[in-house]
């Protein structure tokens, strides 16, 4: 594992981004832009963050700076518009219409800065019958058909972590859209709105599967296909010590190496005969149960059998390959994924730890030439408000609350905030 280096640059050095605070895919998208070198200013609200953890550990706020603005105050919207006037990109994750009601919607921002790329991150999108409804990652991927692809057919689809919807279908598509629109703005002088919906992005991720479905190469049911756990040589198996091994020996040459090292003998004919897949799966499972995860890892080490141990979050940073590449890094005592992807001419790094609410108000006011940020009502949040108080989170009452900003009854439910 590497130790994060400072300073770092990146291909987006010089790009200014305003992020209206929320949780989930919006902050992650802004973090990615910050990792790539952008100067990201997060506009936090009085009362502190909504994530429910110590802000000093919220890695999605690394490589950012924070100011506190009360958008419910009479002069709150003007402060944000002053920032938008000097920005290249603005990102918000409210429900449709909320930013407009707050006075910081696309029309107001573009009146101050016609070149601005205005990125909108929602679950359902800016229009459609469900646009105003609350939701979470699991509901979005359920409607797109992707959740229905996962798990055994005899049990309900398992609840996955929110990587597929929130971050792959949400954050990454927002960043792609923002960068494309930024390219257009620099070429034409005209900004635009980027409507990034998790349902759209997640559906888009399944493009290959839809092609296979159309061609008859994919069955529209769970655990019946090459890549969904139906294939005995593409899946996971338990080991003698309760660990697991992941197998992806799809091609004939990899399959042959796999069964040879597993000690299964001559079962080559079972590879292409799906009627024997049940028999093959039982044989593979029995073999893996005979040794520990470490023992099987040693067996397959250095081979092209496409087999790997299933590691935990704490184990992964210490794997020799990931450690050699510096896939994870330490910064401020927090082990975290290093910025990705990598660039030969404009390398990236973790330049700073998680931005604390309001801690950078004076620096941003100077660097962005927005002196009104230093006015008393727009300054840093009181220290007692930085631990995650739920007060002041409904920015648009009595209108629908911002998508990721509705108060939670307890810290334990913090991650269940509707999008």
What brief labels describe this structure?
single chain; 419 residues; alpha/beta; 6-stranded parallel sheet; 3-stranded mixed sheet; 13 helices; elongated
Notes on the structure:
The structure is a single chain. It is built from 13 helices and 12 strands. Helix 1 (25-35) crosses helix 6 (163-188), helix 5 (137-143) packs across helix 6 (163-188) and helix 6 crosses helix 7 (198-205). It has 419 residues and is α/β, with parallel strands linked by helices. A 6-stranded parallel β-sheet has the order 4-3-2-5-6-7, sandwiched between helices. The chain has helices at residues 25-35, 76-85, 98-102, 106-112, 137-143, 163-188, 198-205, 207-214, 252-262, 277-288, 293-300, 320-325, 361-367; strands spanning 2-3, 16-20, 39-44, 64-68, 89-92, 117-122, 192-197, 234-238, 244-248, 307-309, 328-331, 334-337.
Give a short overview.
With 419 residues, the protein is α/β, with parallel strands linked by helices.
